[in-house]
Design brief:
Chain A: Pfam families: ABC_tran. The complex is a heterodimer of chains A (about 240) and B (about 400). By secondary structure, chain A is of the alpha/beta class. Chain A contains eight helices and ten strands. In chain A, helix 4 packs across helix 5, helix 4 runs parallel beside helix 6 and helix 6 packs parallel to helix 7. With about 400 residues, chain B is an alpha+beta fold. Chain B contains 16 helices and 14 strands. The chains are: A alpha/beta (about 240), B alpha+beta (about 400). The interface between A and B is medium-sized, with 28 and 23 residues.
């Protein structure tokens, strides 16, 4: 892959590996992964437990450093960034949705969404407008003033998605976002993310075991022992909506 | 947002916050009361001792203190007196002429300190008139003397008897005369009680052949704690022909004793502060370990470690200030009450105090520094303890933290 190509895609990795050397035998959590994600993709990373899905997401999100290989986000080589620059880069370019929602418990839904924008030093008006827009898009117009403990699991995950989108990221990394949700709530959440993907062209990359997520993905990358064993781009017409 | 987040976070675990704050409340209360009584007692002690005899500040001819001889006495000019009287902190300038002499009755002799005083002015500093236990206090024109009880007893003299004084006057002349005793003085200090003789300064000048001369000007000031400052100020305006000495130089032993007492109090307070520190540290330790996951998430979504550290420091400061503020608020009425109604010491302790010339009363100081010092110290402790979570956050790896 040439440098010019890095700049045109959202994520690009080359020979990406992560080896944990803590036990008696080194474990290759991610093994020589070459990946190319374009803008607007709705991609699922699938594979059995321990196949390296979460580790790969962490590497793509700059949360973890690879043992070898490199990650480019919009042409920017993450290995060239200092710790603080990397945090700022994540703040402005990557949205995270975690399995356990991970909202700030003492802040309301509205304040949780606002939090990343405050870190970005957005103006008050910009924050207010964006919060209202995101609450509307995530169907939480009436829940903005509630704290996470007052919201259902599905609502909390919607707030988490809204928070991930608040910083206007290049893409969203979601680690098992439906794992703690019942079938109906998971379906609603996926509908919402699919709509954001379709309407706003937001790029989503999920790690998941959930067949409902896999059914809706337009690209499914299967990991086995840290390596890509299959990379399937689906016919858009066959994707469940 | 960081303030809001920190404030709300401390109430997330309400019970823990309240327990930590309560421990700080009690420690601050105890520390404030302890400091107040120590400062109150020491101040009173210092004030008492200083007003026994020396006064807070004295002015002598340069070199007098090192060689306390009448030959080093001085003639007072109006310029000096005016300069001293014009200073707003000085409300009295008292003249003294003092020298050692031999006191004698028909059968006994003993060394004594003969002090010529201005009878009207002297009580401003030493309340000498209150110390008359028998007979009467002096007037300026008296040709009589006041003798300390202990000395009178040794010499076998009483009011109306005659005291003989023999000594060396100005420039070596013989100084000898006999005076009727007008009154006896009771000093709490055994040392003063066995060696003091007072007479009007004019009579003393006549005895020592030193007309118009004085050995010391004693300055009457309101607050003995202002002595250092006043001494510095006076040094700038008074001629260098004179030496200006504060009570710390006049009585270095007293100053040393007060410093030792304060030092002991500091040790006690240190123990209290260590207890406070452990209380806060326990909370911080638990909080830091419990919230690794949360810290990991915050760093993952783009919060710089520095900001996160600020937030944690703010949380510590909030809890500490809360405890310190409540502790101080509770301590104010307690200390003010005992300031207005000091504790009187009874029994054998009272006797010991009185023998040494101290009032047998525990005074409480209400100096503002006693209150804000505790808050400041607790705040510093909180900041120092914040180093621990700060280090944890600085070395935090979000992936590892989110696995916990």
């Amino acid at each position: 892959m040439k440098d010019d190509n890095h700049k045109n895609c959202v994520i690009h990795t080359e020979e990406l590996s992560k080896i944990y050397d803590e036990g008696a035998v080194p474990v290759k959590a991610v093994n020589n992964v070459h990946l190319h994600i374009e803008k607007g993709e709705f991609t699922a990373l699938v594979g059995p437990s321990g196949s390296g899905k979460t580790t790969l997401l962490n590497l793509l999100g700059g949360l973890d450093t690879p043992t070898s290989g490199k990650v480019w986000i919009h042409g920017k080589d993450l290995s060239t960034l200092s710790k603080n620059k990397l945090i700022d880069f994540r703040l402005h370019n990557i949205g995270f949705v975690f399995q356990a929602y991970n909202l700030i418990p003492v802040l309301t839904a509205r304040e949780n969404i606002e939090f990343v924008m405050l870190l970005q030093k957005e103006s008050k008006k910009e924050r207010k407008d964006r919060i209202e827009q995101l609450l509307k898009e995530t169907g939480l117009e009436d829940q903005g003033d509630k704290k996470p403990s007052e919201l259902s699991g599905g609502q909390q995950q919607r707030v988490a998605v809204a928070r991930a989108l608040a910083s206007k990221p290049q893409f969203v990394l979601a680690d098992e976002p439906t794992a703690n949700l019942d079938s109906k709530t998971a379906g609603n959440l996926l509908d919402m993310m699919a709509k954001l993907n379709k309407d706003e062209g937001m790029t989503f990359i999920f790690s998941t075991h959930d067949q409902r997520v896999i059914d809706r993905a337009r690209r499914v990358i299967t990991l086995v022992d840290g390596a890509i064993s299959n990379d399937e781009v689906r016919d858009t017409n066959k994707v469940t909506t | 947002m960081l303030l809001k987040l920190a404030w709300r976070n401390i109430w997330k675990n309400r019970k823990r916050t309240l327990i930590t704050a309560a421990s700080i409340v009690f420690a601050v209360l105890l520390a404030t009361v302890m400091s107040s009584v120590t400062e109150g007692v020491l101040y009173k002690l210092q004030d008492n001792v200083v007003s026994f005899y020396s006064g807070a500040i004295q002015v002598h001819k340069n070199g007098y203190w090192d060689d306390q001889s009448l030959d080093n006495s001085m003639l007072i000019n109006d310029t000096l007196i005016n300069q001293l009287n014009d200073h707003e902190s000085i409300h009295g300038v008292i003249k003294r002429l003092e020298s050692f002499a031999l006191s004698a009755s028909e059968e006994h002799t003993r060394g004594c300190m003969v002090v010529g005083i201005e009878p009207e002015a002297e009580p401003i500093v030493t309340k000498l008139d209150n110390k008359v236990s028998e007979g009467e206090y002096l007037t300026a024109d008296d040709k009589q003397v006041l003798v300390a009880e202990g000395l009178a007893e040794y010499l076998g003299l009483g009011v109306g008897d005659t005291l003989v004084i023999i000594g060396q006057g100005y420039h070596g002349i013989n100084a000898a005369d006999k005076y009727p005793i007008k009154g006896l003085l009771h000093f709490a200090s055994p040392d003063l009680n066995k060696r003091m003789v007072y007479l009007p300064i004019k009579l003393a000048q006549q005895l020592y052949g030193a007309p118009d001369r004085v050995t010391a000007l004693v300055l009457a000031i309101d607050d003995v704690n202002e002595a250092d400052k006043l001494e510095t100020e006076l040094s700038k305006i008074i001629s260098d022909k004179y030496e200006i000495m504060g009570w710390k130089e006049l009585m270095p032993e007293l100053n040393q004793m007060l410093q030792n007492e304060r030092g002991e109090n500091v040790v006690f307070l240190m123990v209290l502060y260590i207890l406070i520190a452990f209380g806060i540290f326990g909370t911080v330790l638990m909080m830091t370990l419990e919230r690794q996951y949360e810290f990991g998430v915050l760093v993952a979504i783009g919060m710089r470690r520095f900001k996160l550290s600020i937030q944690i420091i703010l949380e510590n400061i909030f809890i500490s200030l809360l405890g310190a503020a409540i502790g101080t608020l509770i301590s104010i009425p307690v200390v003010v009450y005992f300031h207005l109604y000091p504790i009187e010491v009874g029994g054998s302790l009272q006797k010991i105090y009185e023998e040494w010339g101290f009032e047998p009363i525990y005074y409480f100081s209400v100096e503002p520094f006693i209150f804000y010092k505790q808050t400041l110290i607790v705040l510093i402790i909180a900041l120092v303890i914040s180093v621990y979570p700060l280090l944890k956050i600085l070395e935090l790896d979000p992936v590892t933290a989110m696995r916990t």
